[in-house]
Amino acid sequence: MKIRAIATLLFILFSISVFGQGRAKISGYIRDADGNPLDLVNIRVKNTLNGTMSNEKGHYSLSVATGDSVTLIYSCLGYNKAERIIPQVTKDMRLNVQMNYTSLELGEVVATAIRKQTTTLETLNADRVKLLPDPAGGSIESLVVTFAGVSSNNELSSQYSVRGGSYDENIVYVNGLEVFRPLLIRSGQQEGLSFINPDMTEAVNFSAGGFEARYGDKMSSVLDITYKKPKGFEGSASASLLGANAYVGSSSGKFTQVTGFRYKTGRSLLKTTDTDAEYDPNFIDLQTYMTYKFAPKWEINFLGNLAINNYKFIPHTRETSFGTATNAKKFKVFMSGQERDKFETLFGALTLKHNLNDNTELGLQASAFTSKEEEGYDIAGDYWLGDAAEEGGGGEIQNLSIARYNEHARNRLHSNIMNVGHYGVARLKNNTLKWGATVQMEKINDKISEWEKRDSAGYSLPQGGGNVNVIANLFSDNELESTRISGYLQDVFKFRTKQGLFTLVGGVRGSYWSYNKEFIFSPRASLGFIPNFDQNLTFRLASGLYYQSPFYKELRTTVQDEHGNSIIQLNKDLKSQRSIHVIAGGDYTFRASGRNFKVSADMYYKKLDNLNPYTVDNVKIRYYGENCAQGHAMGLDVKFFGEFVPGTDSWISFSLMKAEQSIRGSEYVPMPNSQGYNVSLFFQDYFPGYKRVKLNLKGVLSGGLPVTAPRTGYEEGYFRTPTYKRVDLGFSYQLAGGTDAIMDRGFFRNLKNIWLGLDIFNLFDIKNTSSYYWITNIDNHQYAIPNYLTGRQLNVRLIVDF
Questions:
Q1: Three-state SS for 132?
Q2: Helices marked H in 228-359 — which ranges?
Q3: N or C: more exposed end of the chain, with fewer CB within 10 A?
């Protein structure tokens, strides 16, 4: 009895001691090495289940018992774990923590852990472009096309399709400003360099759908680029058979600048096509981004870009073999004439920022874009098409068509776009408010004069008196002046429940266009969830109403005059295309063999109406110019991302899709960019035990695109191009860098790394089809001759970092 009484007494005293303990609150802010707030950091008391997470401002708050020593563990994927020991907690206290990136450096390859993605916005490391084998000359888009849901069937172009949408449905921002591309581009050969300079890029965010209200009125995707602010002197220079790049960045406290120069010529690459010609493509791009902090809370920055693209083409002969083993055909052309194209663009933007306090930022932006585009060609040719049959070890050709053709164009387009806007960001307790308003003025002058004559169809040369009697022609003399007004308001709200952490992003967007007198209203929302039972899981839902506000190209519709000429007119009654997005997806992050991996999956459905149908020839889009279709797109995107090789990041993406439309009440037909499936791979490796030699591989396998005959629509019949298959392989060798003794001598003291690279474009020399050249014989029978893209090509690169 005495023992029981003593035990009871001890239990009572212990209970009184425990329940008599007070509670104290430990709170503070968590930031990275650059001072930026870190959200989704897990904070827990060591050896207990007591924990919390930081919000978007990096703030956290945790209640602990007073009196004892407390050890707090701070962990976040992508950062080194931090530990803080508090010898004794007696009252509420503030504890701020800085977390450093966790990384494994292999020369230029930096592998970091995987951040959680609670919205549809995905991040990309721009440094991976440096050693990537890219026929386009090195671009951010060359990596974007390896993401799930993104596809491209032309290695010469930086344009891409997202979930069955057109190239024009993708919006691109640089430092919060929308950027534009030339409108007359017909083929990848003319296109030149992407606006985005990867050497100047610090952050890349991409969403394949369900994006926030702060982004503009496009139906498919958003690519959001942020240029860097150097912390000191830095730079790089590179040269290859495709051109040369250089950039220099510097910082002097209040003033920072980064300036880049790029030159591209695809002369050697174009010589791998079927056309024997004198190619003279020269593309130049100069950009600068400057910032000046003239007061503690005030900053002004300037972004400028000058691009001059010249393309000269003098064709001689072309020989193309196509068909099957049992139905082989050969197409041969003897050509004369030339093509000269010139595309000049100038872009400038000023931004004034004011930090009202630590949680509020206000800004004013003004930008101007001007483009002068000239396209001209006069090309004549004699061609023949025949059936190729093997007989007696030789080949005999049975003629199917022998004819002559003339192609002529004198196209001019001048555009001026000016933009003035305001934006703001306010961080409250659990909310982050973002808003903005913009006024955009557009002035476009378009003059088109092009025709095509073929005598095989029985047509004669152009006649005088303004009458043209040819197989096809197109004329335009249009001007457009208009004003757009747009604005948005959105809120990012994070809250925690017993089930886990929720991130709710909701917002609305509205705009008005003076040309068609249309007002559109676009609500958008997404919800992200990280469950407490397994914080390696992330779930997300997104939905919204998205509009494709018409730009100049969409307005053009073709009519026939009394002489049978095709005249372009602008349709003032054209309204915005509309898409309702519904997206459900999630991620699972895990570690295997000491390495980080992530599996992402998204299912989506897009209801499309008020569509303006279009046809595609290479990269040129021709719209119907009227809202006469409706449709839908649905699919599944899966991405497996991680360190397949220790210290490197690689991924493989797989997409299934179905995008259909009904034009003028017809049966449903595929949309022009509906591929059915797409598999893409980006892989990095290095030689075991000798990490100076690195390998970068990019592979694409995608279904064929639907194709229709010229001047007809998909509702009148179509067939599909062959599957697009391509593998590009790049080897890079670090000649010097790091702790090499030579880096401490003379000139080399100013350098960081020297790389020598060898690229093999189109490793398996597969002939991919970009478009078709159509001919008509005397019996009015049409043949589609494939225009093949580039073949296998070697490229040598030298990169110097300083």
A1: coil
A2: 267-270
A3: N
Segment (H or E) for 19? helix 2-19
Which of 148-157, 263-272, 346-355, 683-692 ranks highest by mean pLDDT? 346-355
Instruction: Please tell me the predicted confidence (pLDDT) of residue 645.
Output: 80
Token pair for 691: 């990490």
Q: pLDDT value at position 35?
A: 66
38 with 31: CB under 8 angstroms? Answer: yes
Q: Which two tokens stand for residue 151?
A: 């596809």
User: Which tokens belong to 449?
Assistant: 């004069």
Strand, helix or coil at 108? Answer: coil
Quote the CA–CA distance of 672 and 659 in Å, as a whole number.
9
What is the identity of the amino acid at 168? D
Residue 537: how many CA atoms within 13 Å on its side-chain side? Answer: 9
**DSSP secondary structure code for residue 5 in this structure:** H
Residue pointed to by tokens 């010529």:
265
Asked if residues 503 and 492 have their Cβ atoms less than 8 Å apart, the reply is yes
Location of structure tokens 């092009």: 450
Range of 208-217, 459-468, 776-785 with top mean pLDDT: 208-217
Check: CB of residue 606 under 8 Å from CB of residue 581: yes
Sign of CA dihedral 229, 233, 239, 244: positive
In terms of DSSP bridges, do strands 59-65 and 719-720 run parallel, antiparallel, or are they unpaired?
unpaired
List CB contacts of 464: < 8 A, sequence separation 6 or more: none
Q: What percent of the chain has pLDDT over 70?
A: 90
Lowest mean pLDDT among 578-587, 762-771, 778-787: 778-787
Q: Are 502 and 541 in contact (CB under 8 A)?
A: no
Integer-rounded Cα radius of gyration of the chain: 30
pLDDT of residue 160: 93
Q: What is the mean pLDDT of residues 369-393?
A: 82
Q: Which of 492, 494, 523, 488 is nearest to 505 (CA)?
A: 492
Q: Could you tell me if 537 and 588 are in contact, meaning their C-beta atoms sit under 8 angstroms apart?
A: yes
Mean pLDDT of 457-474: 57
Entry pTM: 0.85
Rounded Cα distance, 127 and 115, in Å? 17
Mean pLDDT of the chain: 87
Please tell me whether residue 362 adopts helix, strand or coil conformation: strand
The dihedral through the CA atoms of 509, 510, 511, 516 has a sign that is: positive
